[in-house]
Structures are given as C-alpha cells and as structure tokens.
Amino acid sequence: MLDLVEHTRQVVSRGNQRGALAVARRTQAEHDGGAPGARPVPRGQATREAILDAAERLFAEHGVDNVSHRQISAAAGQGNNAAVTYHFGAAADLVQAVVARHAGAVEELRALHLARVQGSTELRDWVDGLVRPTAQHLQQLGNPTWYARLSAQLAADPRRHALVVETAMRSPSLRGIVDGLQTCLPDLPAAARAERSDMVRLLVTHVLAERETALAEGRRPARASWSDCADGLVDALVGLWLAPVRSPAGG
C-alpha cells in the first residue's frame, strides 16, 4: 500500500513539474515574440548563452544550492523569471548544460595531447594529460573564469558526483589517457589504484579552483601561469601515483 501511495505521489509530482515547464515555455515564447512551437528567433541562442554565463558565475561564486532561477534570470538581463526554466528545465539540467559547454573544448585539447603521447611508457606523459588540457582551456578563456570553481564544487558534492563521472566517461580521449596511465602502474593494487584516482580527481579540481579564486580576488597565485600551475600539479601527482603502498593496520 505504501508503495502505491509513493508511486502516486511521484506521478503527480512529475505531472506538476511538466505542467510548470509547459507554462514557462509558453510565457517565454510570448516574451520572445513567438508562439510555442514556432521557429526560434535568432536572439533565443543569445538568451541561452547569457543564462549560461550568469549561471556559471553565480554557481561558482555562491554555490549551486544557493542560487535561484530568479537570480540567474536577473543576472542574465531577463525580465521574465521563467526564462531559465523555458530554456533549460530543472536546475540539474542547467548545471549539466554549463558543464557540457566546456567539455567539448577540453576534449579537443586532450585529444591532441593523447595523439602526442600515444605509446609512451613515461607516467608523467599520461598524468599530464589529466591536468594540462583543462589548464589550457582556462588559459584560453581569459580572466575572470568561473569553470574551475564550479568543477570543484561538483567533484566534492556526493549528490552531483555522478554528473562529473558521466561527463568524464563520455570522453574518448580521457579514457585513452586513463588506459595509458594504468599501463605505467602494473604493480599498483586495485584498491590503491581506486583510492588514488579519487585523490587525483580532488587535487586537480581544487588546485585549479584555488588559482582561479586567487585571480578573481586579485591575489597573486602560487604559480605565475596556468601552464606553470599544471607543471606543479603533474609533479605532485606523479609522486602520488608512485608512492609506496602500506597495508592497512592489522591487514
């Protein structure tokens, strides 16, 4: 009986969400000067980009859970508070869209790196492929940027970690980099491999985010450039991967 009640509640909830989304789309279509289902006007893409820019900045500066659609719409210059829902749907869809628009650029840079190091037996070459493409992308974006701070939030949030993993696993070049790295560590036990993979993920995202924060606040970062920052990270990560493995106490 409880299962039936819960199922009914979920169905009603989904119906309400779909209804709200439909209303938002009708409202935004009228705001853009067209009817629902009509061919999108050219400024629709500009509106989407403005919303993504505003969302990324606000998420990075205040935290994903502390920013409302109303705030994003206002920051994007949208008088219609339904604009975010119309263009992106739920909050999770907006976060995914922000991440996705960086993924393509990073993928291109990583694919170039993979082509250069293919067949290498040097661990550093593969570790570099985990770090440098994102650092290069941040360099290309110019200052200020917000992507590194947002990525660090998502990587550390258990509720949104799945989004990070899902996006990463869609990257052919990243899978190639990870495969190449693993061939350089044939004797590393599986448990230590998994543990250190988590350490690497958190270290990379948070070091890049710390540099981005320093630049945004006008502070001098530890390294003069994104390239130098990548060098320092790679030095540390090579040491992390090659560190000796101690058995757990009592193991």
Describe this structure in words.
The protein has helices spanning 2-31, 43-62, 69-75, 83-88, 91-117, 123-141, 147-156, 161-169, 172-183, 190-216, 226-242. The longest helix has 30 residues, at 2-31. The radius of gyration is 22 Å and the shape is elongated. Helix 6 runs antiparallel to helix 9 (172-183). It is mostly helical and 251 residues long.
Secondary-structure blueprint:
Blueprint: H1 2-31, H2 43-62, H3 69-75, H4 83-88, H5 91-117, H6 123-141, H7 147-156, H8 161-169, H9 172-183, H10 190-216, H11 226-242
Largest sheet: none
* Gross morphology: elongated
Radius of gyration: 22 Å
**Mean pLDDT, nearest integer?**
84
SS elements, strand count: 0
Structure at a glance:
This protein has 251 residues and is an all-alpha fold.
Characteristics of this structure?
disordered N terminus; single chain; about 250 residues; elongated; 11 helices; mainly alpha
